[in-house]
Write a structure and sequence with these properties.
seven-stranded antiparallel sheet; 4 helices; about 25% helix
């Protein structure tokens, strides 16, 4: 049995979104993300409702292994969702999103906490810098805001 301190990186970013939480929250879903994230196409979504819900499970493609996501908390009334993402032999990740109404829309506090599960995870966690995360969050913020403003996906320039 190996017992060791975790190699972990936790990052938080607050997005400024242009719609109220009631419009934003349904978009934080493995099915609805296909409406606003180009190339988002989970391999499978296991859900009774057809969308995100408590205990929803979905699988996304990845290298070297696909990732399994599990919705551990789903609280639309509180604007809160928590998911675990396991990429075997790479990382275990906890994602939390807390929405808060503000005068001009919503603040979304998004936190990813990645824990390495091996050598590839070590490399990933070390590369999960504040700069990398800020860029990732700004891209996500731009995509969801475009969808909220225009009702369609922001397409990447070819």
């Amino acid at each position: 049995m190996k017992i060791a301190p975790p190699l972990r990186a936790t990052r938080t970013y607050v997005q400024r979104l242009v719609a109220e939480p009631e419009r934003v929250f349904p978009l934080l879903c493995p099915v609805r993300e296909a409406d606003w994230i180009e190339d988002w196409d989970p391999l499978a979504v296991f859900t009774y409702s057809g969308a995100a819900e408590q205990d929803c499970v979905f699988v996304t493609t990845g290298q070297p292994n696909n990732a399994v996501w599990f919705v551990t908390r789903y609280e639309p009334e509180n604007g809160f969702v928590e998911m675990l993402k396991i990429t075997p032999e790479v990382t275990a990740c906890k994602l939390t999103i807390q929405l808060r109404a503000v005068a001009d829309g919503t603040e979304a506090e998004v936190t990813y906490s990645h824990t390495s599960l091996g050598p590839e995870g070590d490399a990933f966690v070390r590369s999960f810098t504040e700069e990398y995360y800020r860029e990732f969050m700004r891209e996500w913020e731009e995509q969801i805001n475009y969808y909220l403003r225009h009702g369609r996906m922001l397409r990447k320039a070819n």
